[in-house]
Design brief:
The protein is mostly helical and 100 residues long. The protein has one domain. 45% of the residues lie in helices and 0% in strands. The chain is built from 5 helices and no strands.
Length: 100
């Protein structure tokens, strides 16, 4: 299964301020495949919020991500597919592990 280009672009080019691939990898690996889609939706929402506008009780694994200005994560209508084992593995190994 092919991961949509827009989805890949959002994951691989988060801010132009450097890489947070290790952070992304560590965040995603804590979820089972069945929960990974929800985890990505939650992450995109956090990336679109200034730190000062976030829930003060936000889980640590999300709170550490930076705000990404520019609207890259503001489209709430983006289609994020259900994850299969293959897609989940691709995201963990090819789109985040060792990615700079």
């Amino acid at each position: 299964m092919k991961v949509p280009f827009t989805f890949q672009k959002r994951l691989r080019y988060p801010s132009g301020r450097g890489s947070w691939s290790g952070q992304f990898h560590d965040y995603l690996k804590q979820f089972q495949v069945k929960d990974a889609r929800r985890a990505i939706i939650d992450l995109f929402k956090v990336l679109d919020q200034k730190e000062t506008d976030r829930d003060p009780y936000l889980d640590e694994s999300l709170a550490g991500f930076p705000y990404v200005n520019g609207g890259l994560f503001s489209d709430e209508d983006i289609e994020i597919p259900l994850f299969t084992d293959k897609i989940y593995t691709l995201l963990l190994k090819d789109a985040s592990a060792g990615f700079d």
